Amino acid sequence: MSAKHGMTGGGYGSGLWPVLLALLVVLIPTACVLWFLNQVVHNERLAAKQRVVEAYRGYLPLLRTRLETYWQQQAAALETAAGKSPAPAAFAACVRTGLADSVVCYDATGRLAYPVPAVVPKGQPAEGDVWETARQLEYAHNEPAAAAAAYAGLAKGTSDDALAARALQAQARCLARAGTRDEAVRLLTDTLGASRFAQVLDPEGRLLVADAQLRALELMADRRGPTFRQIADRLAQRVADYGPPLMPAAQRRFLMKELVRLTEGAAVVPTLGAEELAAAYLESPRPAADAALRPSGLPGVWQFASPHGRIVALLRGANVGERAAAIIAVDALPPEVRVAVVPPEEEAADSAQLLLPGGARMPGWRLSLLLPGGEPSLAGDRQVAAYVWIAVLVIVAMSIVAVAVAGVLRRQLRLTRLKNDLLATVSHELKTPLSSIRLLVDTLLEAKERDDARTADYLRLMAKENTRLSHLIDNFLSFSRMERGKRMFEFAAVPPAEIARRAVEAGGERFQSPACRLEVETAAGVPPVMADADALVTAVVNLLDNAYKYSADGRHIVLRTYAENGNVCVAVSDDGIGLSPRAVKRVFRPFYQVDRHLSRAAGGCGLGLAIVKFIAQAHSGQVRVESQPGRGSTFTLSIPTLSADGMSAQSA
Amino acid sequence: MTERTVLIIEDDATLLRGLKDNFESQGFAVRTAGDGKLGLAAALAGPCDLLLLDIMLPQLNGYEVCRLIRGQGLEMPIIMLTAKGQEEDIVRGLELGADDYVTKPFSIRELLARAHAFLRRRQDATAETMPFGDCELDLAAHKLFKRGAEVPLTAKEFRLLAYFLERAGRALTRRDILNAVWGRSVIVTGRSVDRCVTTLRAKIEPDPHRPRHIQTIRDIGYRFQLGEPDV
B87 and A461: CB-CB below 8 Å? Predict the structure, then answer.
């Protein structure tokens, strides 16, 4: 019962559920298809990428070979450089030609050859008492001028170049302290610039002349002048000269830095970085170098050795990356595909599709293939487009099916409602006379005393109800036959006046009662029609019935027959309630009346006009209505005349 | 017995005539109306003790008449005359405030019996104890006695029985019963009503398989009969 409740409850909004169903049938599968499509497209992209990766996979070993060859060549070049010249020159050559960021050179016995610490010269010439006197003057007595004179004498008095140079240096120092800077500068540059002093080392093993030049630069007040620049150039040349006389690496680095400082960066010292890197490398604990690119012990610096170990090349990580990138940037790859080298212990980029070990020369390094993201290849695109089209077609097909199904369902629903209407109408229309009859019969049977007048009254009423019942059943049956297309008509020539007469006769007494004034107007000279007389009479009776039912007492009904445009017309006019324009359109539909209104102005089953229409069509004619709400209606049945249409159509 | 007024709203003249004659012969004062609008006007114009209402009426259908009459606060019993055998139509009428229904073609004896039952009940509607069959329900003490012995009732059963007794003779839909006894807030189904009715029948019916008091109206609900001989 509760289920039934639910059903009837749902029945009130029954127009909605086919729509809902269609939505479900379309929306959910559409969502599924879209999801599926998304997955497919995603997978397709991945697959396309995979195919590209596979295509390029072959390149990576090739690139690796290239890299190996490159490093081999570099090592060989280093070896060549080491073999050709002494170590400092080899250092300079390697650095200047860009073979490495820096190198460390060893000699044939494996001893460090460059950069090397200063070598303290052996057998320093003895300094006499005069030196002591001069120093006393300079430091103890603080008499720089006198000290300078003493040093000058010493310089002149000795034939030993080293002693002379040191005396000159001391003289210049004292002159500077005495305030005669120009003289000191001249002494430091010109006098000490003589070739005999070029090789002189100071007691710490440094080149004395180079220090003197730096000192001169420091003393010079005018650091913009040509003299300053000239001396600076000369010093720059000297520090860049890796030939003999050998300058200790530490002194070279110091001079280079000072030179840069004094000239405020104007001096060009290209090998300073290499010198510093080599020095740092030598100061730190360093793993053994071999032909492979390995960590050097310095952070971010890599080392590898030439084949015989004569030179260890130092390379900064960025430099390694650039070189490798330059080597592997080959024209065989399309521009959007990039190959990168990834240092050990570094994460490859997310977009890297393929990683390959860098090979024996680059242990721990990896080669990665980078494909442009988000731009699938053309083939992938075509595939995806195909999938999209399939999905669109599926969705469209589904929608069409859903619409069709919804249409069928709605039609079915309407049919069901029609059947229900029929059932309700039949039960009401048949049961009302039946219950009247039963009520009257029961009353008569149970009456204690018989009242003749009332009995006669009841019998009359029962007869009326009986007639009504018969009429209703006739109508139902003819409608039912019509529905099945079974009714056969027998055509014969019938004068319209005859039809009008028989219809009025069949209409019964009520049309002659005081409640009704029926006028029959039969035009003269109306030709007979080829028709089934009984059917036409039924139709006209139905029209008269309607006219009666939908008018109030005192009604005036007019039945006219006339000829018009080759048609014979039978028109029934009333002065009843009339029809709204909307109702006019629907009035010939079966069950129209009960379909629209439960409150009916009169009995009937809503089939009368449907039957009239059917009969009119069976006679190749038509029925039309003109109506004004509240004023009345005129229903006109028109049938082609015999002369206009020699053979009226036989019903299907 | 004072004269009772019956208002009959029916558009079929023959049926109206028959009903009128019968009710008049039973001593009722009968008023009639031929369509919904006239019927509503007649019902509102003067008091009547019983209303016979056809559903398929011109102008204003029976449901509307019923709804409008109840909306005006009139509480006379309404018996629907309906040709529509479809349950949802009957349920609809009952939920709009009708008390009972007969389906056409109906037995005039049954209709008169129902009418009498409704009118008799209105006389003793205020009693504290309500007897039925061989039982008696004490409304004040919330107790049920069967041949003098107390029969224990659950709270739900008591309320259901009291509801039935107050509406003896009326056709009650499951939804009406649910709303009145269980309340609107609780989510229950008609099954709950059926279960409670089953236990109640076991307690009050002489033979629960052939219930005398709580009668099932198929597809609609229940009708409680006091168990007196029919008139």
Answer: no
